[in-house]
Amino acid sequence: MGKVYHFSKNAVLGTLVLAVTALATIIALSVAYHKERANNQSKPGNGASGTSSTSAPPTTPFTPKVPWDYYRLPKGLKPESYNVTLWPRLKPNSDGLYIFTGNSTVVFRCLKDTDLIIIHANKLNFTTFEGMHAKLSSLHEEAVPALQKSWLTARTEYLVVQLQSKLKAGAMYALHTEFMGELADDLEGFYRSEYLENGLKKIVATSQMQPTYARQAFPCFDEPAMKAIFNITIIHDPDTVALSNGKEKNSLLSVVSGVPVKVTTFEPTEKMSTYLLAFIVSDFISIESSTSNISIRIWARRTAIDNRQGDYALNVTKPILQFYEKYYSSNYPLSKSDQIALPDFNAGAMENWGLVTYRETALLYDPMLSSTGNKERVTTVIAHELAHMWFGNLVTLHWWNDLWLNEGFASYVEYLGADYAEPTWNIKDDIILYDVQKVLAIDALASSHPLSRKEEEVSKPAEISEMFNSISYNKGAAVLRMLSEFLTEPVFARGLSSYLNTFAFKNTVYTDLWDHLQQAVDNTPGLDIPRSVSEIMNRWTLQMGFPVVTVDTQTGTVTQKHFLLDPDSVVGRPSQFNYTWFIPIKWMKNGVDQQQYWLLDKTDTHSSMRVSGEEWVLANTNVSGFFRVNYDLDNWGRLLSQLNTNHQVLSVINRAQIIDDAFSLARAKLINTTLALRTTTYLSRERDYIPWESALRNLDNYVLIFDRTEVYGALQAYLKKQIKPLFEHFRTLTANWTRVPAGHSDQYNQINALRIACGVGVEGCRELIKSWYRQWMENPDHNQIHPNLKSTVYCNAIAFGGVEEWDFAWRMFQTASLASEASRLRSAMACTKTPWLLNRYLEYTLDPTKIRKQDSISTIQYIARNVVGMPLAWNFVRARWSYIFEQYGQGSFSFTNLISGITMRFSTEFELQELKRFKEDNLHVGFGSATLALEQAIEKTTANIKWVNENKAEVFKWFIKETT
Ligand code: BES
Ligand code: ZN
């Protein structure tokens, strides 16, 4: 889902040098989901063979008339259990197609008399029985209604069975179907993944059901609240292994239709939702360990396991599971935990219950070849998916409109799980960068939307897919963290545990969680919150955006206001709370923590915030709250001088927040741009990663806007001045780059130092990097470059080299034995400044034999990030819009990033016109899930033009002043 820029921290670290320096930021108006991590794209919505709701040009709205016109299932039937047998063929048939066959019997209860059976099915070919798609039987003595007719609906993805008489309320029936489907390479439903081993092509049959693709594997009531028990049987080649959610019950050699096969049956699952099912047939091997009652296995290609790339995942899984068992006070609900790395996978990972699927980059780790960033990625993704085993899988939200709670929750507690497994990393602080700051930038747009949606607003597959966005993930994580902070973690965990135990194997709505947290609050003497949990949280979940809190330290007045990045933008969406919030404010005075204060009105006076002399106030310590803070100018001045005299008095995340708030406030015209720039002057003494990273992201926005203008030289000179001490610091610390620092985040900042320094031309940097790459080219089997530095080195060497450097990278990419190494090279190849190489690379992105489908959109984005590649990518995408849209655009959210990625530099009137023309020219094709991104790109370009007009001269002057 894959995340905004779905870059892994490393990928990002690598790509950008070129564009020079800094990190991608994302004032990206893209609401596209995703954490800065692996290029995980996520998922399509539509898939209907015939009519596609996303691609159709706008027509008059369709009014549903009959039950099968609605996207939601009627409430009259409820599944109890399924017996499903699937037989994927890993060799093509005589037409060259890969297929699967299967049969399924679903036992369901009738709750209301009806003569219609409506069940999801999509892209399946049914065997007919006397002209009917299904056979119906009764589990009682009574006669069963005869079938009158049956048909498939393409738009709503149903199999509909019309009966001659009614099913009776209270009775149970069984519906049997036999069908065939294509095992396509489309990364959804039951699909195939391919890889080479010793020159031989191997096929894996695997699945991705979330959110609406289980219906492509077998007919099912494909809604999360339709929980049932699944009895799965898989037929497969005797030399392959079959996996599913349950434990293997038996696996017997047999002959089916004259073919010798293995028939593997699995123990019945727990009561669960269809979107969490998984079926995999492969010749993968596994390693395993166990706790007292859970057997843990890691599966991957044989060579990956032989090369011990699964060991790290196996090692961290146990502590992470143990952490959650304690945190949730609830045992792991199953008896086994399988996790598998797949060569082709659209998202980053998927929490199928008991059989979690991953991209290879998100599960495999090689101590010799992988970077620290790769390792952290593995830890956090595992922690995220395993968090879902309880929150999401054991207790499931009733409908997709509440997705933010599921994904936001996992995105918050993944930090807790990962911290337990790797306590020395200090990883909990990182949520500020990858969730809080990231989504503060997005949620500040007039076109944002509330976390919570009404059930009726989310019905069709494309609407469901759109829920997997940055607001759900990152804002969800941020507000849950705020909640846990003001309730205190033990109270939060107690409420959670009571919620999980109450609703195990059932479905909930978000208010159920608030109720249980409220009970925990009520049972905690001394814990004082000024309103109920739900009253407080409604402000954060039912209205979009967040407040900027202004503290006037002269008067002690504290006010709040809806924060908008562009003060001239118009908020079209009314709020029942008038855009006011109940705001928990942790704060300090002169470095001393004060008692938490609640701002409950638009404005209030808190006299202890009145200070004088050298005293300063800092609000939102630890960035516990989801809001920005502004001060009177005097207090700003005192905070700046504190930074400049002794910045250590403030925590790393507060240093980062001062910078990030200041840049946003300036963009919103609440403070001067020069005041924001002044928060970066102390950086020449800053050595910590998080503040540097925040500053670089903000300065990177300047880079993107100015890297084609005369301001760029001065900006580079400033960056050079600021980065030099950091570069020297790490050069000394690492004995001239021969080692890496011990601290986890120091390792990231070492990479920043090298990357920026080379980007701005610090003496010696490029030569160093070129020589390392040359050594590797001379001895391709012995890459001596430290894994942490590879992304930066590859990118720079390719940027400053020519076709030889590029072609070498391409060869290494094709033969890489580790996915994250391939991924680094893929991103580095986008760094070349040679137009024909970039154009050739663009062509490769749409050729699945060269670039896997899962990686094509992110590769185009990497190219667009390069200042030379941007116009080429823009032309490329415009010229092939309908093809790209057809092949890659059906509801996938990585697709949203394509538009925001290409347009992020747009800041001229001419570019705005081009963008508008692109929209006009392609109305007949459509933009699918990128529709909103296109609108936002237009909105953002308009705002950029204005910002440049108003700020360019001042910014230019400031950089010159600082560097002469
Ligand atoms: N449930 C999602 C995977 C998913 C996303 C499926 C979108 C279908 C559509 C999974 O739990 C997830 O969030 N995966 C993330 C990784 C995670 C560490 C944030 C992903 O795929 O990027
Ligand atoms: Zn998730």
Automatic annotation (TrEMBL):
Its main subcellular localisation, reduced to a broad class, is membrane
The record's keywords, sorted A to Z, are: Aminopeptidase, Cell membrane, Disulfide bond, Glycoprotein, Hydrolase, Membrane, Metal-binding, Metalloprotease, Protease, Signal-anchor, Transmembrane, Transmembrane helix, Zinc
Q: Where is this region: Disordered?
A: 39-61
Compositionally biased intervals (Low complexity): 44-57
Q: Does the keyword Chaperone apply?
A: no
Which EC number(s) does the record attach to this protein? 3.4.11.-
Where in or outside the cell it occurs: the entry states: Cell membrane
- Give the protein's cofactors: Zn(2+)
Provide the topology term for how it sits in the membrane: Single-pass type II membrane protein
Q: Which biological process annotations from GO are given for this protein?
A: peptide catabolic process; proteolysis
List, for all copies, the residue spans of the domain called Aminopeptidase N-like N-terminal. Answer: 78-276
- The residues annotated as the active site are E385 (proton acceptor)
Q: Which residues cross the membrane?
A: 12-33
Q: GO cellular component annotations, sorted alphabetically? A: cytoplasm; extracellular space; plasma membrane
Question: What residue stretches are annotated with the ERAP1-like C-terminal domain?
Answer: 616-941
GO molecular function: any one?
zinc ion binding
Q: Which SUPFAM superfamilies match?
A: Leukotriene A4 hydrolase N-terminal domain, Metalloproteases ('zincins'), catalytic domain
| Binding-site residues, Zn(2+) | H384, H388, E407
Peptidase M1 membrane alanine aminopeptidase domain location is 312-540
**What does the sequence similarity comment in the record state about its family?**
Belongs to the peptidase M1 family.
| Protein name (database record) | Aminopeptidase
> What is the organism of origin for this protein?
Nothobranchius furzeri (Turquoise killifish)
